[in-house]
Recover the amino acids of this structure.
């Protein structure tokens, strides 16, 4: 028994590390920053929401943070189908469908062409691919305003100016550098052995792309869709210049509603129209947020 006691005395005691306190200065600073960032974005949204359901009598009282005493959805109805944009009082619904007609083909074409470009630059690497990729990336950093006049002249020469195909072509051109970079970096992160095995099995350019690469591209496609839908739906300048009076997108219609100065300025209608304009990007991020993060984690922005 004495021997057991000696062994027990000689055995080193295991010391557990002291637990760190929960309220450390670094942790408090992080949460304070996150709270301030959340308030920075949520407070304006709260003001817009409560103002959009208030009657004008309550808005004139000046308390923008107060909850509505008599909430109403009449401003939303007016913003959608009765708000005036100059001499026309048809609301923002026409601009909504114009934005849909512009966004859907622009997103589809820019993603398809960007995916093919990224696939070719990552695996096939034709002669001059490095120079081509550099030119595309240079185009991504040129301000869009610099290219407005040359594009106007070019589209007018081929009779596409102020038309729906014209604005689609412009959005595809402006989205090409970023889409090519996105898909090139994603495909570059895939194992080269997959491509080599497909080549040994007799796969050609298009067969490998459609049967092998495209099914593996779901995460980056989701990222590309979110980026392109957000950029194209929120665009104002290109739609104003190239769409023409019959295809003005929702953002241009919103600007016309807010800047109409005839009669009383209806702040509740303006706020409702603003929220309606931003609903599509907000809903896209809300329902596809986890896919967006997964696409980034799977190599969408590696390189």
């Amino acid at each position: 028994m004495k021997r057991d006691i000696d062994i027990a005395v000689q055995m080193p005691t295991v010391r557990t590390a002291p637990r760190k306190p929960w309220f450390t200065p670094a942790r408090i600073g992080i949460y304070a920053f996150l709270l301030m960032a959340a308030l920075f974005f949520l407070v304006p949204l709260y003001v817009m929401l409560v103002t959009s359901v208030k009657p004008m009598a309550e808005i004139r009282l000046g308390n923008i943070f107060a909850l509505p005493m008599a909430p109403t959805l009449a401003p939303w109805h007016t913003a959608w189908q009765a708000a005036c944009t100059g001499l026309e009082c048809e609301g923002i619904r026409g601009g909504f469908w114009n934005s849909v007609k512009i966004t859907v083909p622009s997103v589809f074409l820019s993603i398809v062409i960007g995916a093919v470009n990224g696939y070719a630059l990552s695996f096939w690497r034709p002669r001059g691919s490095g120079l081509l990729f550099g030119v595309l990336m240079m185009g991504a950093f040129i301000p869009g305003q610099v290219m407005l006049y040359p594009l106007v002249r070019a589209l007018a020469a081929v009779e596409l100016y102020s038309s729906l195909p014209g604005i689609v072509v412009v959005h595809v051109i402006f989205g090409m550098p970023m889409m090519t970079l996105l898909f090139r970096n994603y495909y570059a992160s895939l194992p080269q052995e997959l491509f080599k095995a497909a080549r040994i099995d007799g796969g050609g350019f298009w067969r490998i792309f459609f049967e092998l690469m495209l099914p593996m591209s779901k995460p980056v496609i989701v990222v590309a869709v979110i980026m392109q839908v957000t950029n194209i739906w929120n665009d104002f300048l290109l739609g104003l210049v190239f769409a023409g009076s019959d295809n003005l997108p929702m953002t241009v219609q919103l600007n016309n509603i807010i800047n109409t100065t005839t009669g009383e300025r209806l702040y509740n209608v303006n706020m409702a129209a603003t929220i309606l304009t931003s609903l599509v990007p907000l809903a896209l991020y809300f329902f596809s947020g986890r896919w967006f993060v997964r696409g980034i984690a799977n190599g969408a922005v590696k390189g």
Notes: Residues 267-300 form the longest helix (34 residues).
